[in-house]
Design goal:
Two copies of one chain form a homodimer.
Chain A: E1 30-33, E2 36-41, H1 56-78, E3 91-100, E4 110-120, E5 123-132, E6 135-146
Antiparallel strand pairs in A: 1-2, 2-4, 3-6, 4-5, 5-6
Chain lengths: 154, 154
């Protein structure tokens, strides 16, 4: 199954967090699961905060990318389109809030679940939680906006 | 000159964002400049958002590490100690907010400036801005707390 990020246009698929063309990046991949979105990510051994726990910066990064991917897919769906019906519109984050409620152990797969809320076809808020097994360790909220013209590759 | 992160104890110096012992990480380094703290960071070519701009996740990550480093140094100073007078106490982030006010161009050095505000020796808030030349492109705010016992290496 193709992820949201697989539907980004080639010139917009270089993100360090989720770009399929970025050879050094995290390659986060996001999918629909009903009305919510899901991404599964197993951090590498070097994605450490202190030994045994996942870096808060890496957690912020994957929340950010899952949110922009979710915003993109939600706006596409709200415009009446299916995945594969043209490239997904690219969104970027205007603001991000992350609450680290419990330490996130390094090792197990993390499951990110997003709940997009459409303000308009160009502005989508996404609540994201990160779970290890049943436990939500981190909660995030991102306000995502359609890629501004100033950031569009020429 | 040694950075704040050079004064972390060896078993707490593995962070992906700023750990001097993490071979794969960003190696952010923070310093006092009067009452504020400063870190300079030049992103790598692969720290992309869309081509030409810095990844929001990388920006969140370096803000996070500059904030915890600043909190650590500020708490140490507030306890009446100088840098080098024992290891710095390690702080972690309880919550992080990042506002991406303008796209951050990829290429130039970024200058992060932190303003720590001590709530107690175990809780410090830090406002951080990221500048490219004179322009502040990103503003962050982190609430940092002393490393909880549950995260301390045994």
């Amino acid at each position: 199954m193709k992820s949201f990020q697989d539907y980004y246009a080639d010139d917009l698929a270089w993100c360090f967090g989720c770009g399929r063309l970025n050879l050094e990046g995290h390659h986060l991949q996001s999918f629909w699961e009903g009305e919510t979105t899901v991404a599964r990510f197993t951090p590498k051994a070097f994605h450490t905060a202190v030994p045994g726990f996942v870096s808060g910066g890496v957690l912020a990064s994957i929340i950010d990318c899952h949110a922009t991917g979710s915003a993109s897919a939600a706006a596409h769906r709200a415009a009446g389109r299916e995945l594969g019906d043209g490239p997904l519109p690219r969104f970027v984050t205007a603001s991000l809030r992350v609450d680290y409620r419990h330490p996130t152990p390094l090792g197990p797969e993390l499951v990110l679940r997003g709940r997009p809320e459409i303000a308009s076809l160009r502005k989508v808020s996404v609540a994201v939680d990160v779970r290890v097994g049943e436990r939500a360790t981190v909660q995030g909220e991102a306000v995502c906006v359609a890629l501004p013209d100033a950031m569009r590759p020429t």
